[in-house]
Design goal:
mainly alpha; single chain
Length: 312
Amino acid sequence: MASADFVIGMIFLSQTIVGILGNFFLLYHYTYLELTRYTVRHTDLILRHLTVANSLVLLSKGVPQTMAAFGLKHFLSDIGCKLVFYVHRVGRGVCIGHTCLLSIFQAITISPTDSWWAEMKSQTHKFLGLSNVLCWILNLLVSIVVPMCVTHEWTSKNNTRKMDLGYCYGVVDNRIALMFHNVFLLSYDVSCVGIMIWASGSMVFILYRHKRRVQHIHSTNLSPSSSLESRVTRSILVLVITFVSFYTSSHILILYMVLSHNPSRWLVSISALITSGFPTVSPLVLLIRDRRTLRVSSACLRRSVPFHNLFM
């Protein structure tokens, strides 16, 4: 069993390190683009917030899970447990919200001039900053119910359902808290995922119509901006598909764990790995599909830009 825990710990440690480095480099990448005005896109602001939220999820989930797997179990105080789960839920909610914002914004950006979204094109960038702030505030408020469902102590109440998470205990001894938890969090998640899928479907339809429209046009006559938006849209679609895949798998496992009276340690670990999957994979997806990455890297090497200047 000790060897199994060591393997789990190494997996969590590797995932956390890769995810943190990926998000850190992505934040560096977008910060450099913003400060140097090097081919800045409006979506870069949303992606910067997404990297911060990804990092919160990885730190609040990966670090405690790694320490628990290496034998340091239930090391957090009651306040520590509640704070870690609160931060994790805020980060996870902001990830969902900003991925949703990203898909909506791009669907509006590539919409044809004769669509009902056309009038919003020139106004969307003005609301990006406000939308990002509101997303954080909404999740800070909605996630207040999460600390009610975790504790650092194993309670012996007969009417309390308990779940050992390795470093804290999940408890359900308050039906009102559970009801608020389900109503607020699930409503938010389902709404965002539904809008995300709808916006992605709209983007697929727009790209399909655009492809058919230009089939008989020579490639040299295509607008460079149109080609750029098509590439950005495909990248966002890949990001949304990645998110929905990890999100669906995570919630299936969480539902199974809630219905199980005593989920196994392996099941809890796999659920945690999948939960941290999107924050780990998303920066790699964005960096690989962003053609500016290599150009910025080579420019930084040529100019020898001091790293600390990017955040001053």
